[in-house]
Design goal:
It is a single chain. This protein has 323 residues and is α+β, with helices and mostly antiparallel strands. It has eleven helices and eleven strands. Strands 6-5-4-3-7 form a five-stranded antiparallel sheet, with helices on both faces. Strands 9-10-8-11 form a four-stranded antiparallel sheet. The longest helix is centred in the last third of the chain and has 17 residues, at 302-318. It is elongated.
Length: 323
């Protein structure tokens, strides 16, 4: 851990030039005293770092000093720099590691390309926190200590105890055999088995976790993509309702924001879109379609059409005469 921090410290100085101990401490997530000890360790190891006194002082590297990281061309480095700062960087608790890796990527570039690549990456924005309608996208948050334990158990193949708060239930401790981690639209999931039965846990509902020493009961090789497809299919088939809808293309995203899943989509003859959607239940589907008014029409099932017609009739009767 300390070796990684020392490398990150050197790369920060390489990229920014002179930095104060307080700035380095903020960037590395440690105390100022730890930074000063790391500076001493680098000097002892022969890294030419020196201190400048005064109000504008700080620490810097001797001119010309360079760490050597090779193997990346300009476009490869640009791709990493552009994709790296996405909001999903905290997924699985790897945000600090990603920040450290990106500093190494920048330092690996030739001097002539370093500033160009950093500026070019700043011209790309991937998956911002809000859309054009200024709606914020919710991002799951997982306690850092819990995520570390989960990640270790998954990679080491050990059993895992999690303090899990299922929806509408009191938190309980459960011992599971972890299989892998999946992230979908900034939501993280732990795929596991419990007493031999398949289980999928929302990471944001894990309050605490503990890696156990005994090995997990799981296959040596795993196809996470196949497992996720199978579990998704089972989930969509349990206590859900499938609805066929015709919708104005301008309201497509509003409708998809309320649906559990999209099963099919095609253009309709009059300029509308025909969507096959899954909702949590009939009440959820009725609420979602009602929000869109005449911009969306439920084609099937008939029970949903009847429920919407009754609701519309009640609304029309309420406003038929002036108060």
């Amino acid at each position: 851990m300390r070796a990684d921090r020392l490398v990150s410290l050197v790369l920060l100085l390489r990229r920014h030039g002179r930095l104060t101990a307080d700035t380095l401490a903020r960037e590395l997530g440690v105390s100022t005293r730890t930074v000063l000890r790391d500076i001493d360790a680098l000097s002892t190891a022969g890294v030419p770092v020196y201190a400048e006194r005064g109000r504008h002082g700080g620490f810097a590297l001797m001119p010309g000093f360079r760490t050597e990281l090779t193997g990346l061309n300009h476009d490869e480095a640009l791709a990493l720099l552009a994709a790296g700062p996405v909001r999903g960087e905290q997924v699985f608790g790897l945000g600090p590691a990603l920040a450290s890796a990106l500093r190494k990527v920048v330092d690996a570039l030739p001097e002539s390309h370093r500033a160009t690549a950093s500026d070019a990456a700043g011209r790309f924005l991937v998956d911002p926190e809000t859309d054009l309608l200024a709606r914020r996208t919710a991002t799951d948050e997982v306690p850092g200590a819990a995520m570390v334990e989960i990640r270790r158990a998954v990679l080491a193949g050990h059993r895992l105890r999690i303090h899990y708060a299922a929806a509408d239930r009191a938190p309980q401790w459960r011992t599971v055999d972890p299989i892998g981690l999946v992230t979908v639209r900034d939501r993280g999931y732990l795929l596991a088995t419990r007493d031999g039965a398949d289980r999928t846990y929302r990471l944001s509902r894990v309050l605490a976790a503990e890696e156990l020493p005994e090995p997990a009961q799981r296959p040596g090789r795993v196809d996470l993509d196949r497992i996720w497809r199978e579990r998704s299919a089972r989930f969509l088939g349990e206590d859900h309702i499938t609805v066929l809808v015709r919708v104005d293309p301008a309201r497509r995203e509003d409708l998809l924001d309320t649906a559990v899943a999209v099963r099919a989509e095609e253009a309709d003859g009059d300029g509308r879109l025909r969507l096959e959607l899954t909702f949590q239940d009939a009440r959820h589907a009725e609420w979602a379609l009602w929000q869109l008014g005449a911009d969306a029409e439920a084609v099937a099932p008939q029970s949903l059409r009847t429920a919407l017609r009754r609701r519309a009739a009640a609304m029309a009767a309420l406003y038929e005469d002036p108060p």
